[in-house]
């Protein structure tokens, strides 16, 4: 922007500075000519005022009062034309102007004010035109970066070079998407402190400034709005000096192209999530042949020849927000689910493991290509993931299930059910927030070949269906007595004590069980089938409980 000094240096005007030499860098927004005693109602600040002194005619006290009035209205300076009301500029004005550091210069009689206004207007127009040209060049450069898909890193690097600054781009949750620096790099501790201040004001859609220790010129923060939501925050620290008008135009363009880049990334991510969700749906429903599974894995960047396993994050509980229930609560719950999926992806992306993920109802399912990670390393990774979720989303608790790695792609469905039932078995024991693997299944592992509630019910009915019908018709407890007898490992006394019945009563009940089912409790195979059928019933009840919760 043009300054008072620029005007003083215009050739052939012979303008003479009388006071306020230290403030000649004041920017001049426009030039205004006035002769009225009080022109302040037309002034907005930043004007250079030209006068022949008519408004200063009078006693010295009045002259001083009039000048102070102009200084209080943030004028850039005062040009005093001599040879009209005054032959020379009044000494009182020079004294007060110098005292307040206010630029005051003499305009010779032979120099018309129109020559000054024309020269200033020309300078302002030329400067604005130059600024416009430079802005268009910046816009074209940033647009080219976006079109060539060079990414956010290239955008911020260009910003740092053009403005001479350090820049950090945070997403809405405080994760650093990328950063760049011109001369001075911001340290990790400073970046963490920076986000601490931004997070307190992240609902604000307006630009704002922050003051921080170790940052001389302060921090400018720009919310990046993408798809009608704040998607990120751009924090900028200039290496030296203040931000110029040109700097701010560059920043405006950077915020715009960053929003475009985020919208593009979001569209790609949502497409990938949808495709991943469709893949998991078809995989679990057993609708895919091995060749199609291999093709899909290759599409997602995984190696179809490597073993893969399923890791399942299941939401155990959710602490509902305070306030009225209804649509708002559903929106909060949906937001938590989205954040859970985001947190899983962010965690896994920072590990040296290939994966794809998708949301399924109350869970996030992850297909992992473990590579060199062994079983214990995968369990340790699951524990780290659970701890990260607890920290990022304290309002929910999650359990993690881990299936076995399978080289045959058609068996990946089996890994999913192993992870699913590993969690369910642990939950049957009343354990929240568990980390469960195939080893936790025990005898339940034999049931996973059935893999669905209907098949489990068929198996249960084939073994204990008649006994269940008898209990319902006779109001007896033969199924419960059988379960207690098997849980006591066939010890009559222990089982009878738990049932609060006599041993002879329990023996009679077990005899009735054998008669109704046609099986023999002395046969190990029949005992095993009874045991598995009872476990199948537990899984069925657990599934029904999950649907009604």
Please specify the SSE layout and strand pairing:
Layout: H1 4-8, E1 16-19, E2 30-33, E3 47-51, H2 60-72, E4 77-81, H3 91-100, E5 104-107, H4 113-147, H5 152-163, E6 165-171, E7 176-180, H6 188-199, E8 208-210, E9 219-226, E10 229-238, H7 245-284, H8 290-299, E11 309-318, H9 327-349, E12 354-360, E13 363-369, H10 375-392, E14 396-402, H11 412-428, E15 435-437, H12 453-474, H13 478-487, H14 492-499, H15 503-517, H16 524-548
Parallel strand pairs: 2-3, 3-4, 4-5, 14-15
Antiparallel strand pairs: 1-5, 6-7, 6-10, 8-9, 9-10, 11-13, 11-14, 12-13
Helix pairs in contact: 2-3, 4-7, 5-7, 9-10, 12-16, 13-14, 13-15, 14-15
Search tags:
five-stranded antiparallel beta sheet, Udp-n-acetylmuramoylalanyl-d-glutamate--2,6- Diaminopimelate Ligase, Chain: A, domain 1, 50% helix, single chain, alpha/beta, Alpha-Beta Plaits, five-stranded mixed beta sheet, elongated, 549 residues, Beta-Lactamase, 4 domains
Task: Give a quick rundown of the structure.
The protein is an alpha/beta fold.
Compute the number of strand runs.
Answer: 15
Helix content: 40-55%
CATH class of the largest domain: Alpha Beta
The secondary-structure class comes to alpha/beta
Sum up the overall morphology in one term: elongated
Largest beta sheet: what is the strand line-up?
Answer: 1-5-4-3-2
C-alpha Rg, in Å? 39 Å
Please tell me the CATH architecture of the largest domain by its name.
Answer: 2-Layer Sandwich
- Provide the β-strand percentage band: 15-25%
Question: What is the total number of structural domains?
Answer: 4
Please, what is the average pLDDT? Answer: 85
What is the number of helical segments per DSSP (H or I, 4+ residues)? 16
Q: CATH homologous superfamily of the largest domain?
A: Reverse transcriptase/Diguanylate cyclase domain
- Biggest pleated-sheet summary: 5 strands, mixed
Distance between the termini: 66 Å
CATH fold topology of the largest domain: Alpha-Beta Plaits
Low-pLDDT sequence parts: none
């Amino acid at each position: 922007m043009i300054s008072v000094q620029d005007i003083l240096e215009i050739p052939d005007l012979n303008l003479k500075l009388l006071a306020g030499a230290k403030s000649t860098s004041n920017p001049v927004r426009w030039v205004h000519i006035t002769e009225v005693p009080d022109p302040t109602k037309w002034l907005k600040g930043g004007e250079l005022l030209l006068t022949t002194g008519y408004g200063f005619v009078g006693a010295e006290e009045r002259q001083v009062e009039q000048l102070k009035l102009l200084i209080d209205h943030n004028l850039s300076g005062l040009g005093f034309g001599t040879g009209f009301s005054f032959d020379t500029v009044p000494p009182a004005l020079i004294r007060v102007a110098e005292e307040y550091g206010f630029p005051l210069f003499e305009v010779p009689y032979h120099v018309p004010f129109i020559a000054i206004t024309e020269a200033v207007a020309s300078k302002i127009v030329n400067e604005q035109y130059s600024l416009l040209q430079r802005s268009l060049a910046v816009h074209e450069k940033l647009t080219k970066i976006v079109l060539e898909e060079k990414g956010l890193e290239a955008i911020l690097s260009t910003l740092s070079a053009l403005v001479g600054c350090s820049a950090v781009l945070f997403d809405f949750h405080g994760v650093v998407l990328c950063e760049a620096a011109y001369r001075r790099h911001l340290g990790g501790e400073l970046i963490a402190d920076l986000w601490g201040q931004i997070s307190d004001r992240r609902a604000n859609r307006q630009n704002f400034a922050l003051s921080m220790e170790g940052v001389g010129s302060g921090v400018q923060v720009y919310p990046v709005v993408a798809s009608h939501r704040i998607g990120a925050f751009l924090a900028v620290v200039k290496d030296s000096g203040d931000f110029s008008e040109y700097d701010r135009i560059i920043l405006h363009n950077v915020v715009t192209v960053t929003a475009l880049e985020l919208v593009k990334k979001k569209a790609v991510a949502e497409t990938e999530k949808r495709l991943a969700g469709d893949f998991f749906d078809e995989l679990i429903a057993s609708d895919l042949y091995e060749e199609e599974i291999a093709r899909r894995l290759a599409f997602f960047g995984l190696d179809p020849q490597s073993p893969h396993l399923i890791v399942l994050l299941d939401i155990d509980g959710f602490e509902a927000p305070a306030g009225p229930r209804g649509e708002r609560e559903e929106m909060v719950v949906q937001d938590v689910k989205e954040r859970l999926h985001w947190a899983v992806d962010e965690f896994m992306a920072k590990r040296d493991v290939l994966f794809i993920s998708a949301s399924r109802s109350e869970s996030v399912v992850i297909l992992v290509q473990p590579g060199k990670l062994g079983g214990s390393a995968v369990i340790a990774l699951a524990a780290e993931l659970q701890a990260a979720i607890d920290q990022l989303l304290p309002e929910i608790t999650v359990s993690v299930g881990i299936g076995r790695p399978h080289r045959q792609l058609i068996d990946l469905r089996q890994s999913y059910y192993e992870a699913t039932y590993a969690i369910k078995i642990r939950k049957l024991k009343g354990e929240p927030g568990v980390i469960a693997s195939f080893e936790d299944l025990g005898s339940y592992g034999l049931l996973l070949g059935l893999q669905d509630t209907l098949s489990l019910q068929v198996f249960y009915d084939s073994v204990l269906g008649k006994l269940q019908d008898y209990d319902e018709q006779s109001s007896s407890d033969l199924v419960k007595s059988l379960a207690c007898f098997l849980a006591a490992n066939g010890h009559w006394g222990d089982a009878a004590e738990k049932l609060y019945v006599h041993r002879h009563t329990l023996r009679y009940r077990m005899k009735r069980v054998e008669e109704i089912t046609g099986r023999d409790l002395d046969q190990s195979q029949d005992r095993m089938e009874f045991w598995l059928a009872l476990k199948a019933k537990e899984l069925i009840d657990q599934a029904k409980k999950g649907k009604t919760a």
